[in-house]
Fold this protein.
Amino acid sequence: MPSPYRALFAAPGSKAFSAAGFLGRMPLSMMGIGVVTMISQLTGRYGLAGALSATIALSAALAGPQVSRLVDQYGQRRVLRPATLISLAAAALLLLAAHFAWPEWVLFVACVGIGCVPSVGAMVRARWAAVYRGTPKLHTAYSFESVVDEMCFIFGPIVSIGLSTAWFPEAGPLLAACFLAAGVFWLTSQRATEPEPHPRAHKGGGTALRSGGLQVLVLTFVATGTIFGAVDVVTVAFAEEQGSKTAASVVLAVYALGSCVAGVVFGLLHFAGAPERRWLLGVCAMAVSMIPLLLVGNLPFLAVALFVAGLSIAPTMITTMSLIEEHVPRAQLTEGMTWVSTGLAVGVAAGSAVAGWVIDAAGARAGYGVPAVAGAVAVAVGFLGYRRLKRPAPGRGGSVGQHSEHEERHMA
């Protein structure tokens, strides 16, 4: 690993909370696609599979910010453990309902409960912010966490789809639940690096979503999440049409690999100029990269197209975290990060459901029209809200997101 990344782990406890965060985030890439694979294996219905995956994502979108607001107020340990137990109990119900062919409404109820899963990525990033706030190392830390996210998306689908197709249909979601339990309980056992709670922040201060800049980021990432959700579901169906359903996990891993490579390189660079310009450029690149998917005719071409598409993901995500640092109060940082994850989750819900319906009606190749349209929407929202991103929240000069970027602006 390059030396700037090695230097991150000089901070006591950083290796442990980062490793726990990796385990706790694996379900992010495993659960949704695992449910799609499980249900399609058991019923052959991609519409139902996509709707259940969408229900998990939508439930997480509704519950996630509330869980993170409580975390900002009471601390990670006190909030994350009960929330995780609810999610694990719901996952057990889902597996039993799917295995024994219980009524469909039971499946949906279970998926709602799974959505109580905490945003582990936001929790780990909040720990990095507590350690390195006000220093350039926070940019490197956010870049490293983006790479960890992509590593989860490289290995998660491979493991989840592979187990569900080669062993038994429920194996992927079952392992995802095990990773969630191990990651969250390991993370919350590390008290020394837990960010200090801010109970006073919620005395009439309202939600972090009151920030105009954060609203733009969240709305844009709804469209971005639609891209991700649709690509996952359509790729599984496309691989099945090509006669190799298990290859979907490899193709999706290539998609994440592109983002991982870009994230590693991006973390080593130092940029001059406003971060909102880089963010908008990243959103445009993600949108344009969806166009070649409409032309795919085989799995190798699809893998190449998705690798190229993945190159724009991590840099855009990393820049988004810097912008959140500028646009929300410090005491609401975890909530602010989770709202962006919520936007993604809402989009994943929409993308999974719409793509499933399109696949059932017109086939997998037609399904790639869903991420293409979503990319165009993301660009439109990004341009319309760009001016809000140029107005940071008052009093944000202490964060690395504003501190380092404003220094770069003066130097440029």
